[in-house]
Specification:
GO molecular function: 1,4-alpha-glucan branching enzyme activity; cation binding; hydrolase activity, hydrolyzing O-glycosyl compounds
Strand order of the largest sheet: 9-10-13-14-15-16-17-18
Largest sheet: 8 strands, parallel, barrel
Family: Belongs to the glycosyl hydrolase 13 family. GlgB subfamily.
Number of helices: 13
Structural class: alpha/beta
Catalytic activity: Transfers a segment of a (1->4)-alpha-D-glucan chain to a primary hydroxy group in a similar glucan chain
Keywords: Carbohydrate metabolism, Glycogen biosynthesis, Glycogen metabolism, Glycosyltransferase, Transferase
Helix content: 10-25%
Shape: elongated
Distance between the termini: 63 Å
Oligomer: single chain
CATH architecture of the largest domain: Alpha-Beta Barrel
Organism: Gaiella occulta
Radius of gyration: 27 Å
Length: 621
């Protein structure tokens, strides 16, 4: 890439609307030799590039100001692909700092932190996948997400080794998508990637940017989408990265009441600056365009929306209207979603937003933020709280099962059982369950089977399919030897079957976000710890009934309301022997009788297994 910054580039960058700014800023190897460098540092006294080719000598390769844009650019004739480099920025405060390139496409492996000149030569093979994605509506398609931390799924793997191992594993499990915890360059592994130093570079610990492209391409080849965790809310204070980049608070706010995050010890982007918004907006597009990501999960949205997030009185500055809403962040998130959905149709933009902010996943044209989906933290909290109680006490907490359906249509929800729920003393999902070992496993199987039938899309963190006893740690691999135990292998088999049945049954995903796709059959059986509901396809021609008994008592002859007559068969039973259950159920199916019940025209007696979920579908004969 030989082109420097033209007038249009400078104009768009100044307005914060240069959607391909990463093609102009950063380091770009020239066809005839040398490397063009460009960086935004408006308050710098001077900028030069130091690196392997010039003995890291400040001033050897100076950059020149590009008009009055605040951008410095120039060509280092002796620089080449593979060379390490930094920017020697003489700041407004008189101090020269060696900075990593904010737009670097590649970086040294931590703890080293220099940028690396890189030019992609990857040839993609996923044209058909991308064409199908662009024509699809993610709201009306199956979405079952396997959340992965690349460094600890199986320790020691490169991007290419992960492609070889993770691809077939997820394909066998049947998840539609993998969601990767932040893959952007970060210096501190225990941050899990949420303290990003290089927003345009995949983590070099696992290989080159083209190695990461290979991973995405391989997952697409296997029919698996890729969602990337993205962190626009904050960045770390490392002096060699974005912090006080040109000797001033450039990317962050000067005032600590707006520019410092009290929980994480990080800095907050100054979204009032066009150039900072452009840095993030172009970055989101970069991961979708250059790395073929099928979606972004936007981290910590609540911390962006509220000026008083985790702050006491006097520790925050009200907005111009005197309120607590961060109007600049609201405007940025709306612009982000408008641009992403317009330029890259079919992608999913998912908000991790933990408050009751209205319209997170509603169109910006109606006042919403424009996200495709929002994590349903309320459902997660309530269902895990309910299941944490001994069955004998669950009758007093039945509303925790039913209340999420009161607001189920307020947003386009993803049901998340994420990494956040299995760390920091919260225990693993299995360890949260009460009872003896058999009951704990049965509770977990019932949770998964109910969740996969519940309105909304699904997300499960890696290790959940193994029914791990221990909490997750980024410092060790998943507990793979558990699969030698039939009880744990049974949970993985259940999830594989759940995904296969889910993907094949439109009633479970065509109408996730409108009430006509759902009907309560039994919502008030608190004394029996039973719930049952029906799901319907868009045309109404397909129906699936989910009934769950969260009690260890077998309920024989239990009468279940049904929306249709005829014969019904068990499509799934989480108590099946194939999942290491006790194999209680309705193997011969059930026959609906013209006995109205709970507003339904039919009902049928059936057996509800202990601590188990059954799915019933009309028997086509």
């Amino acid at each position: 890439m030989s082109a420097g910054l033209g007038d249009l580039d400078l104009h768009l960058a100044g307005e914060g609307r240069h959607e391909r700014l990463y093609e102009r800023l950063g380091a770009h190897a020239l066809d005839g030799g040398g490397v063009r460098f460009a960086v935004w540092a408006p308050n710098a006294r001077s900028v030069s590039v130091v690196g392997d080719w010039n003995s890291w000598s400040a001033g050897a390769d100076p950059l020149a100001p590009a008009a009055s844009s605040g951008i410095w650019e120039g060509v280092a004739a002796n620089a080449a692909e593979g060379h390490r480099y930094k920017l020697a920025v003489a700041g407004a405060d008189g101090i020269t700092r060696l900075k990593a390139d904010p737009y670097a496409a590649y970086a040294e492996e931590p703890p080293a932190n220099a940028s690396v000149v890189f030019r992609s030569r990857y040839v993609w093979g996923d044209e058909a996948w991308l064409a199908e994605r662009r024509a699809a509506d993610p709201l009306a398609r199956p979405l079952s997400i396997y959340e992965v931390h690349a460094g600890s799924w199986r320790r020691g793997l490169s991007w290419r080794q992960l492609a070889a191992d993770l691809g077939p594993y997820v394909e066998e499990l049947g998840f539609t998508h993998v969601e990767l915890m932040p893959v952007m360059q970060h210096p501190y592994a225990p941050s899990w990637g949420y303290q990003v130093s290089g927003y345009y570079a995949p983590q070099s610990t696992f290989g080159t940017p083209d190695d990461f492209r290979f991973l995405v391409d391989e997952l697409h080849r296997r029919g698996i989408g890729v969602i990337l965790d993205w962190v626009p809310a904050h960045f770390p204070r490392d002096e060699w990265a974005l912090a006080r980049f040109d000797g001033t608070a450039l990317y962050e706010h000067e005032d600590a009441r707006r520019g410092a995050h009290p929980d994480w010890g990080t800095l907050i982007f100054n979204l009032s600056r066009h150039e900072v918004r452009n840095f993030l907006l172009a970055n989101a597009l970069y991961w979708v365009r250059d790395f073929h990501a099928d979606g972004l999960r936007v981290d910590a949205v609540a911390s962006m929306l509220y000026l008083d997030y985790s702050r006491k009185a006097g520790e925050w500055v009200p907005n111009e209207r005197g309120g607590r809403e961060n109007l600049e962040a609201v405007a940025f998130l709306r612009e982000l979603n408008e641009v992403l959905h317009d330029r890259e149709p079919g992608i999913a933009v998912i908000a991790e937003e933990s408050t009751a902010w209205p319209g997170v996943s509603r169109p910006t044209s109606t006042g919403g933020l424009g996200f495709t989906f929002k994590w349903n933290m309320g459902w997660m909290h309530d269902v895990l709280s309910y299941l944490g109680h001994e069955p004998v006490h669950r009758r007093f907490h039945h509303d925790e099962l039913t209340f999420p359906l009161v607001y189920a249509w307020d947003e386009n929800f993803v049901l998340p059982l994420s990494h956040d729920e299995v760390v920091h003393g919260k225990r693993s999902l299995l360890a949260k369950m009460p009872g003896d070992r058999w009951q704990q496993l049965a509770n977990l199987r019932a949770l998964y089977a109910t969740m996969w039938a519940h309105p909304g899309k699904q997300l499960l963190f890696m290790g959940g399919e193994l029914a791990q006893w221990d909490e997750w740690s980024e410092a060790r691999s998943l507990d793979w030897p558990l699969l030698d135990d039939p009880d744990h292998a049974g949970v993985r088999t259940l999830l594989s079957d759940l995904n296969a049945l889910y993907r094949a049954e439109p009633a479970l995903w065509e109408v996730d976000f409108r009430p006509e796709g759902f009907a309560w059959l039994v919502g008030d059986a608190r004394d029996e710890n039973v719930i049952a509901f029906a799901r319907f396809s868009a045309a109404g021609d397909r129906v699936l009934v989910c009934a769950t008994n969260f009690s260890p008592c077998v309920r024989e002859g239990w009468r279940l309301p049904l929306p249709r007559g005829g014969s019904w068969r068990e499509a799934l039973n989480s108590d099946s022997r194939f999942y290491a259950g006790s194999d209680v159920g309705n193997g011969l199916g059930v026959e609906a009788e013209a006995v109205p019940m709970h507003g339904q025209p039919f009902s049928a007696p059936l057996t509800l297994p202990p601590l188990a979920t059954v799915w019933l579908v009309p028997d086509a004969g």
